[in-house]
Amino acid sequence: MTDMNRRHFLSLASAMPLFGLPSANGLQASTGRPLQPPPLLVLVYLKGGNDAYNTFVPLADPLYRKLRPTIGIHRDQLVPFSSTHGFNPSLKPLLPLWENKEMALLQGIGQQEVTNQHYRDLETQFTAASPGEYYTDGWVTRAFSANVDNSILGRLTLDALAFGDLDIREADPMGPFRGNKIRVINMQHPSEWIISQKVIGTQHLESTPARALAGTFAQPERVTLKTVFPANEFGDALKATAQLAAAGMSPPVVHITLNAVDADQHHAFDTHWDQNKYHGPVLTKLAEGLAAFRNAMLEIGQWDRTLLATYDEFGRSPKENEKQGTHHGWASTQMVLGGKVKGGLFGEPMPVVNVFSIDGPPPVIDYRELYTTIIERWWRGSAGHVFERRFKSLDLLRS
Hints:
- By secondary structure, the protein is α/β, with parallel strands linked by helices.
- Helices cover 26% and strands 17% of the residues.
- The chain has helices at residues 3-14, 62-67, 95-99, 118-127, 139-147, 190-196, 211-214, 233-246, 275-299, 367-378, and strands at residues 40-46, 56-58, 79-80, 85-87, 103-110, 160-163, 184-187, 204-206, 253-258, 306-311, 316-320, 326-328, 332-338, 344-347, 365-366.
- Strand 11 and strand 12 form a beta hairpin.
- The longest helix has 25 residues, at 275-299.
């Protein structure tokens, strides 16, 4: 075995799924059979709190028109996907995924309570805490700690890779990977990875367990894909993820933050003012990037082993504010994509209600039901000791 092939084998072996599978030492290189790539989870953070009412739009609700006289999207602009709702026209690139039943919409997903303050509500998402509860570790860290067999703790690859803004916390800025217990690298600019194919030399942060890997983690051979990705940071992050998957080097989790080009979340999803100016373009960026990523994963034959979920800290209010924007709300609607996803509608449509400028209807799906689904049905682990109580999993995945 050449040195290059040996390193490639080790990178593949160390990237095997964390739960219920053998460690690298248990793999047999002599069989000649191709190693199966690990299942991949991609978390896409819609930083600032996406306006679900203008993303998955009520087709004919008169109250929607009344509460949004200037920012409401006209019915003839929508891309219908159900008898009651239509896609924002910016999401048209995702229509093939919806029609092929590769996209699930989780309607009315959110936290039991919200403070409507970005930092605290996002911290709750990162740690999967109940109201009044505080965790030191992120929910992914706890899931890994509760499920990883001791024989796998010596794996050679990263546990998670993050692109873009992750967490403003100075002491432990790793979002759902908090706790300084797993191997995480956060690269601020995915374009730097695209150019160099290595972590060293990029603007990045790493957890203590990943410190040695930060100096050595690199893709030895550049992967060329036929799929064309959008020429922006979100497209670069998705392209990098697909290339790593094609090379057998993707960690179990990749986290990607979608934010404005100028890093001001008010020019993306935190739409307090001039919403028509900013919201459509960032949804276009989201849809075009996700559509390209799906095509790339199909190209390399790994779409069935990929699960992608969007999330944010909270939704937006049903009512337009005085600055032609929307203030913070409560529940939202999120997307789950993948070759094994049971496409369709889950939960209940978020009702349009006339509330104060900050507020909205409560969730019908607890966000930890999605996390439980990931842990138990995607990773084949146990969520029994990850959350403070038991949450049901969602029937999102085909066997």
